[in-house]
Design brief:
Number of domains: 2
CATH architecture of the largest domain: Alpha-Beta Complex
Shape: globular
CATH topology of the largest domain: inorganic pyrophosphatase (n-terminal core)
Number of strands: 12
Bound molecules: manganese (II) ion
Order of helices and strands: HEHEEHEEEHHHHHEEHHEEHEEH
Largest sheet: 6 strands, parallel
Helix content: 25-40%
Distance between the termini: 29 Å
Structural class: alpha/beta
Strand order of the largest sheet: 3-2-1-4-5-6
Oligomer: single chain
């Protein structure tokens, strides 16, 4: 498990770097902000660094400004790129001695933020709940039974005998809510509900979080969603529904890809559909696949066909090619796989 080891590492180090995966979601940002605020209260110096900026939809979380992109942090990314393997440690700012990597199944998931860690040869603490976690880092606290990384951070706070401040509790509750699809996925255990209750007792603002997450959509986002819903397709051979987001269509609506993160659930919401899928054009010659399952099919396994992974009810993958090239073969492969039963 590694809870004690992870907590001990946080107690031992005085300057801690906290990072998480690219295309950050609510669990990333929530766990980073909750943990880093707690560490600051413990007297630690903390750098919070991600490859990508905080998406708009999470900018209501207290302390979100604490998250810096790798480029902002390093000043000039070219001087601090782990890909140029020269000893450039001295040119990297800061002097954190440990990196806490949250919600990431592999070190490759943090993308360019690895440039802040790898050249400096920091100790790495891997805190995650993905079943596909590859076990990187010197310290591993990985529990695939947990609903979210935020749930694990809550356990760490308890282990450190710290009561959470209301702002910290709100950040963690946000991550639990987003990673469980609002307590809808099977990853929601009685323990998850107890953690949520404790977070509310410690001052988490459930009503405020719910409003920010679900009742403040921009009208442009909803009209874009309307277009997507009209274009949704269903397989005649498997209980599968999907939608596709092209960059051209996003630009036409003045939207950012991060605003489409949750739309895949509409594909899943169709009666009789067991797997919902979203194709997202990435602009680098790749298409991102985002899978959701009602529980009968293991989408961690389905995403694995394309080199991806995640959880049994939520997973992702990246494939090379344009939307037009990728869509047909992916659907055919899934139809074949799903007709075998699971
Ligand atoms: Mn997560």
């Amino acid at each position: 498990m590694g809870l004690a080891e992870a907590a001990a590492a946080l107690e031992r180090h005085r300057h801690i770097l906290v990072t998480s995966h690219y295309n950050p979601d609510g669990d990333c940002i929530g766990s980073q902000l909750g943990l880093s605020a707690l560490l600051v209260r413990l007297g630690k110096k903390v750098d919070v660094i991600n490859q990508d900026p905080v998406p708009d939809r999470y900018r209501f979380l207290p302390g979100w400004e604490r998250v810096r992109t790798f480029d902002e942090w390093s000043g000039a990314s070219v001087h601090c790129d782990y890909l140029d393997k020269l000893d450039n440690t001295a040119r990297c700012p800061g002097s954190a001695t440990v990196a806490v990597v949250l919600d990431s199944a592999g070190l490759d998931r943090i993308g360019r933020a690895a440039g802040a860690i790898v050249p400096a040869r920091m100790e790495i603490v891997n805190i995650d709940h993905h079943v596909s976690n590859d076990g990187f880092g010197q310290v591993q606290y990985v529990d695939p039974a947990a609903s979210s990384t935020c749930e694990l951070v809550h356990r760490i706070a308890k282990r450190l005998s710290k009561t959470l401040a209301p702002e910290e509790a709100s950040c963690l509750l946000c991550g639990i809510i987003t990673d469980t699809g609002g307590f809808r996925y099977a990853s929601t255990s009685p323990a998850t509900m107890r953690v949520a209750a404790e977070l509310m007792e410690q001052g988490a603002d459930l009503a405020g979080i719910a409003t920010s997450l679900y009742f403040e959509e921009r009208p442009e986002t909803l009209s874009f969603l309307g277009e997507l819903l009209v274009g949704m397709k269903r397989s005649p051979k498997a209980p599968l529904a999907w939608m596709s987001v092209s960059l051209e269509r996003l630009a036409r609506h003045g939207l950012d890809m991060s605003e489409t993160e949750e739309f895949v659930r509409y594909a899943l919401s169709v009666r009789g559909v067991e797997v919902g899928l979203m194709f997202k054009e990435q602009g680098n010659g790749q298409v991102r696949l985002s899978f959701r399952s009602k529980g009968r099919y293991d989408v961690n396994r389905l995403a694995g066909i394309f080199g991806g992974g995640g959880h049994s009810q939520a997973a992702g993958a990246r494939v090379n090619g344009s939307l037009a090239e990728v869509e047909g073969p992916v659907i055919e492969a899934l139809e074949r796989e799903m007709s075998d039963g699971r």
